[in-house]
Amino acid sequence: MRILVVEDDRDVADFVCRGLEEEGNSVQVVHDGGAALQQALAHTFDIIVLDVMLPFLDGFEVTRRLRSHRNQTPVLLLTARDSPKDVVRGLDAGADDYLAKPFSFDVLLARIRARTRGPSTEHGKRLQVADLALDPESHEVWRAGVAIALTRTEFAILECLMNAAGRVVTRQALIDTVWGLDRDIENNTLDVFMRFLRAKVDQGDRPRLIQTLRGVGYSVREQQL
Which residues make up the CATH 3.40.50.2300 domain(s) of the chain? Predict the structure, then answer.
């Protein structure tokens, strides 16, 4: 994979870079937010490992600007500030995942694999529920023919739900599928992503397709009149 590592602590950057290169990845390292934004917009990467506290532009702002340019490269935030408020701020900016410092390199590798693995659906099979369509190959989503821009994590959640269209997917099954079995995800993290996903898929006067079975999980299905 091509990985952009953005970290102003050069010892941490060197440690991460060496480890990722030993795993066979091509790694580019920059040390401030301005350089990160420039490189991410000028080149194609499979994932961006992005520190939050950076010179010039912090990781939140870099992520926000990438998404405003419709750049959907997965972003994994590295942060020493993992309070719920900061986590929500990062996810709200468009990040796909976060990892609190200090971290295990094996955990970092697992998070990168989880955020970059390919779709699990049958190759080329488009999923459809009512007027909502999802193409697992191109990673595109439409509602009534209008394209919807989703982050990689939002797409993975919706893909999981649409693969089980009409059936309830438990909260734990969603977490295991989207984040991986090795990840201890807080319930509020899933709640935040579901709120973002609903705001995009079920916005305005559209019939609600994402349904909640309180305390159990979620499903995608047409509402019965």
Answer: 2-116
Domain with CATH 1.10.10.10 in the chain: 127-220
Q: Are 109 and 115 in contact (CB under 8 A)?
A: no
pLDDT by 10s per residue, the chain, length 225: 899 999 999 999 999 999 999 988 899 999 999 999 999 998 889 899 999 999 999 999 999 999 888 888 889 999 887 677 777 788 888 888 888 888 889 889 888 887 776 544 444 578 998 899 999 888 899 998 889 999 888 999 999 999 888 888 888 888 888 887 555 666 678 888 999 999 999 988 888 999 988 878 899 987 654
CB atoms within 10 A of CB 115: 22
Task: Tell the residue number behind the tokens 């079920």, with chain if given.
Answer: 202
CATH code 3.40.50.2020 for 2-116: no
Q: Cβ–Cβ contacts within 10 Å for residue 116, how many? A: 16
